Amino acid sequence: MLSLGIVPDGRFQIRIGVTHQDTQASYAMEIDELTYSSLNALHPLNGDRVRLSPYPKWDPYRNTYYCSIVRTTDAVRETLYFTCTKLFAEQLQRIRQLKSSLIPGYELVPELPLADAANEAEPHRTGRMSARSIRKAARYLMIAGLLALLCIQVKDNWLANSADALKRDMGELKAAATTESTKADLPQSIGSLPIRVEPVPVVKNIAEVQQETAPPQETAPPPPAEEYKEYEVVEIGAEQPFFGLPKGYVSLTFDDGPSPYTKKIVDILTNRKLAATFMFIGQNVEHNREAVAYASEHGMAIGNHSWDHSSKLTKASPAEQAANLARTSKLLESITDTPVTLFRPPYGLINKSLISSAGGQQLKLLMWNRDPEDWNADRKEDILNYFHKVSASGGVYVLHEDRLTVEALPEIIGYLKEKNLKFAILK
């Protein structure tokens, strides 16, 4: 989510950046007043990064749609929920379906000017409003307020906006206000609220695909090069950030390690004669060097995920960026005796300065085009459902070293093998 506010002509607008496979694009979308008021009440841009869920849900108890955002800072990640309309849900569905018409790229276009910044004082509509508009606004705000109170008050105890709180209470809540009047006032066609798609620069694909040695079985020493393996090594290009593989290939990548789960993930992969790409954080490496060595000894590709996973790396000076990356690469190389050639920016945030800093250290930018959001899952089935819903061919999946991911990994691998895809690690 890039911006939220009121444009000079008084319309409500949200601006988001979306990745589809090996493509990124920016959308400026007009939204209805009820959705805007409910979302804006969360002050969504008061954080370092905000992700808007593309999957609104229907709540039969409150007789309304709701959606969520995930707001992330260096120290906290929180899920917040807001009421939305059927129209907004249809708009997000339309965006999910816009895949083939986008132009590949990596830089989001500049934001359109808004009447007021959404992360400052709450914006007000410019110009005069009709009496009907004022009545509508009052009705929307009253409904949104009642629904918000119902979401957070249970048995006289006030709960924070969190995923767990909402899920516990969803089955107990009953509707206190109807949304029929709201539905009557909203447009019935998605076409009445336009979506503008703005293309961005092209990202080139990989230059070639080649094979290297196989991984060993669990704690066994590295096998000879001629041993059978079920993956290939893909050398990605250095000219542009890399998002996706050619059709017929798939790659699993794991962020934010090393962790207590690193060895378990490596063992699951090697038992199936597979390998993956691990993007390690420097601070974590300091406390878990053995896991890095174990992954390297078993044929995993290892990359740089910054020293501290700060969302402010793009705002740092070129010298600070270079020092951050160099410190991480130096530590990794001291453990693996292998040059580090991959860099994945924290949260996928990049700008020209960071691209230049990485290039100056011969680091290739590894992005992704499939995100199951395993870090936000409540059950392993939530992760598996994503794999079944999204085409896997050409996918570079971003996963994380979490318990549920480890539990789901054998089934993930089994499903991808059923699709007759060639597994790849990236270098």
Fill in the keyword field for this structure:
22% strand, alpha/beta, seven-stranded mixed β-sheet, 2 domains, 12 helices, TIM Barrel, globular, four-stranded antiparallel β-sheet, 427 residues
List the helices and strands and how they pair.
Blueprint: E1 3-6, E2 12-20, E3 23-31, H1 33-40, E4 49-52, E5 57-59, E6 64-72, E7 77-84, H2 86-97, H3 131-152, E8 153-154, E9 157-158, H4 163-169, H5 180-185, E10 195-198, E11 208-210, E12 231-235, E13 249-257, H6 262-271, E14 277-280, H7 282-287, H8 289-297, E15 301-304, H9 318-336, E16 342-343, H10 352-360, E17 364-365, H11 380-389, E18 395-400, H12 403-418, E19 422-426
Parallel strand pairs: 12-19, 13-14, 13-18, 13-19, 14-15, 16-17
Antiparallel strand pairs: 1-2, 2-3, 3-10, 4-6, 5-6, 6-7, 8-9, 11-12
Helix pairs in contact: 1-3, 9-10, 11-12
What does it look like?
This is NodB homology domain-containing protein. InterPro entries: Glyco_hydro/deAcase_b/a-brl, NODB_dom, Polysacc_deacetylase_ArnD. It holds the Pfam family Polysacc_deac_1. GO terms for molecular function: hydrolase activity, acting on carbon-nitrogen (but not peptide) bonds; metal ion binding. This protein has 427 residues and is of the alpha/beta class. It has two domains: 196 residues, no CATH class; 219 residues, Alpha-Beta Barrel (TIM Barrel). It has twelve helices and 19 strands. Strands 11, 12, 13, 14, 15, 18 and 19 form a seven-stranded mixed sheet that branches.
CATH level-3 fold name of the largest domain: TIM Barrel
Quickly give the CATH architecture of the largest domain. Alpha-Beta Barrel
Total domains: 2
Describe the global form. globular
CATH superfamily of the largest domain: Glycoside hydrolase/deacetylase
Largest sheet report: 7 strands, mixed
Distance between the termini: 31 Å
**What structural class should be given to the helix and strand makeup?**
alpha/beta
Number of strands: 19
What value does the Rg take, in angstroms?
23 Å
